[in-house]
Amino acid sequence: MTGSFGPPVPPTFQEMWRELLPLGRHSGSGGYRRYAWTGADTECRAWFAAQAERRGLRLDVDRNGNQWAWLGDPADGDAVVTGSHLDSVPDGGAFDGPLGVVCAFAALDELRRREGRDGTRRPRGRDPFPRPLGIVNFGDEEGARFGLACVGSRLTAGQLTRDRAHRLTDGDGITLPRAMEAAGHDPDAIGADPERLARIGAFVELHVEQGRALDLSGDRVGIASAIWPHGRWRFDFRGEANHAGTTRLADRRDPMLPYAETVLAARREAELAGAVATFGKIAVEPNGVNAIPSLVRGWLDSRAADQTSLDTVVAGVEKAARVHAAAHGVDLDVVRESRTPVVDFDHALRDELARILGRKRDDGQAPARIPVLGTGAGHDAGILSSSIPTAMLFVRNPTGVSHSPAEYAAEDDCLAGATALADVLEGLVHG
Ligand SMILES: [Zn+2]
After folding, report:
1. How much distance in Å is there from the Cα of 240 to the middle of ligand 1?
2. What is the mean pLDDT of residues 43-57?
3. What is the whole-number distance in angstroms between the Cα of residue 273 and the centre of ligand 1?
4. What is the value of pTM for the model shown?
């Protein structure tokens, strides 16, 4: 419906959520399989483009395939941008990523409603925001298909070269450039985009919390302080394959045994350091029920509040692995596959968010104290924080479960998140 005094009435938060819900949902698991440059991803992108169009926003797909919806002209500079991602991990939940995008559109609608109520601030039919406002959907945040997270934002920020991106390959042997091409995007255009980032004055990503800090503190919304340093290490235990029935225990060089001891050591080291450490992926050769393995390859993911704690955990795990490998006559190689330093979000912007959200509103509903919390999960906001002032808002997740179909946030909390984001955007665009 189009009124004579402004853009068409946009869909509500609930309507947007309902539209997005069936896209890329796997009928068996009930989880989402929205992998980069697949049919499900294309459907999500079409949804984003339709939302932009319904609001009269200018859609812009950048050289790396990230989608941007603009109100005002980003060329004016100092733009305020919000958004997140629509892709998912294998059998992921509905909230990780999409909540930030749906809340972004809902917050913009709320902002327009507020402006519309105030005749002195809104010349009829025109958005009077002094700074351009953008909503972004970053491509391939989860890295579910090509094994590297935040590909869209990494490319844009110059943290991933075109050559390295072109070598990324999925489980079926399809390279990233081929997948991009098949989805109608030019893979030769990808690369750093400093001009685009230079036009952005602030990026605020809203995200479902991937822990229980807000649930424990009884708050609906919080502000991120930092993203913990984290990394991935590959442990290769090499022994000797042999018959599971005829080889005496004393004669075995079984790499599964030191691997098992190492998993337990990771748990102990993480507990001691107040960190987390996980062996969540394993490859075994020859991988037969009746064969002693020749190789056990396990991947350690570890994260801690500071670099020293992280280094201590990983050094402790590696030491235990070497001791146990030697005791079983097994060779060990440890390879660091990735390491991401701590992301400390822009202090000035974080303080500004706390000030805006702590301010008493007319209805007296806004909380006076906004919790500030760290997180062990990576985000596009973390990637961009080295280029532009960046902040994050978290919405309460009562179970803390994430990357699973059980991931959940109550509708009231989601709406509180959208309102908080509207408050933040309003405060930022008006300075
Ligand atoms: Zn996410």
Report:
1. 41
2. 97
3. 26
4. 0.85
